[in-house]
Amino acid sequence: MTKTRAAITAVQGWVPEYILTNKELETMVDTTDEWILSRTGIKERRILKGEGLGSSDMAANALKLLLEKKKMDASEIELIICATTTPDMQFPATANIIADKVGAVNAFGYDINAACSGFLFAVATASKFIESGQYKKVIVCGVDKMSSIIDYTDRATCIIFGDGGGCVLLEPDDSGNGIMDSVLKSDGSGRHFLHQKAGGSVKPASHATVDAKEHYVYQEGQTVFKFAVKGMADVSAEIMERNHLTADDISWLVPHQANKRIIDATANRMGLSEEKVMLNIQKYGNTTNGTIPLCLWEWESQLKKGDNIILAAFGGGFTWGAIWVKWAY
After folding, report:
1. Could you list the active site residues?
2. What is the spatial distance between Cα 116 and Cα 142, in angstroms, rounded to a whole number?
3. Which end of the chain, C or N, has fewer beta carbons within 10 A?
4. What is the distance, to the nearest Å, from the Cα of residue 132 to the centroid of all Cα atoms in its chain?
């Protein structure tokens, strides 16, 4: 009897219209287009403009387009998991707001926050609801409005991040395709090197925390880079080894778009050529939970049924992981 797996049966991305280029950043902080490009691979990023707009709006826009594409009614969705580091508000869950905005009246939902690895953790979690037989239509959204927690006077972080996101539909598959395996890891001692200092229960918002700019992303770049290069490459190699996959077996690597040098190191470790690596960091920067669904969306037309795809990410916390997917359509 064939095992029922959770398969990705649709994908859709959405990015804001406004483009923040490296040239514009040159007028805001002490940096250059050449410096940003050589160290990160980023040329531009999208920024969500408009009063009262948040992560849920970007995810809802993507989800409405996905439903249209699948000719599916929002009432059919049974569960929405939203991976985000920038929820609309502390509570309720952004997933619940997305459900309301698209009319998913029969869905329950919740958020997952695992920084940049959140989308992977959410897909792995969602797959279990499908495999158990409890649900047949589960949506996973990966979305972030990183501009809401970025200090645009800090040249170390403002050059990296952008806004955007996407979502995937998971459904049961008995043909041997779907989510095949995952390796997920975390190490809380990494929190010291990449975090938001204030706004949580340890250090609630106050005049002092706002004045000290403690509600923005804080990152010790070199330390994070070293951990990320090793972590993302290690899990990507591990998932191949334990499933006896060679570089020839892999059709695509879908890496979290944090830094081109981290992506290159991961591909090299897996023995993959550039042609097999999805790369759109130059256009969108690091959209945190949005990077992997945005890649899948942009490359959707090139994906073939049965393709072996490795999704890989590394994020603050530290969190990291890899998922092996056999593409289902």
Report:
1. 116, 256, 286
2. 9
3. N
4. 25
Partners of residue 168 on adjacent β-strands: 11, 140
Intrachain domains 5-176 and 180-326 with the same fold: yes
Question: What counts of helices (H) and strands (E) characterise the chain?
Answer: 11, 13
Q: Residue 3 in 3-state DSSP? A: coil
Specify the CATH number of the domain 180-326. Answer: 3.40.47.10
User: Where in the chain are the domains?
Assistant: 5-176, 180-326
> Does domain 5-176 fall into CATH 3.40.47.10?
yes
How far apart CA 19 and CA 10 sit, in angstroms, is: 27
Task: Name the nearest CA neighbour of 314 among 213, 250, 212, 226.
Answer: 226
Q: Are 87 and 171 in contact (CB under 8 A)?
A: no
The candidate with the shortest Cα–Cα distance to 126, out of 61, 161, 78, 62, is 78
Question: What DSSP state is assigned to residue 329?
Answer: -
Rounded Cα distance between 318 and 193, Å, is: 9
Q: Beta partners for 219?
A: 194
Residues with Cβ < 8 Å from 226, sequence gap 6 or more?
Answer: none
Q: How far is CA 226 from the centre of its chain?
A: 20
d(CA 256, CA 262): 9
In tens digits, the chain (329 residues) has pLDDT values of 679 999 999 999 999 999 999 999 999 999 999 999 999 999 999 999 999 999 999 999 999 999 999 999 999 999 999 999 999 999 999 999 999 999 999 999 999 999 999 999 999 999 999 999 999 999 999 999 999 999 999 999 999 999 999 999 999 999 999 999 999 999 999 999 999 999 999 999 999 999 999 999 999 989 999 999 999 999 999 999 999 999 999 999 999 999 999 999 999 999 999 999 999 999 999 999 999 999 999 999 999 999 999 999 999 999 999 999 999 99
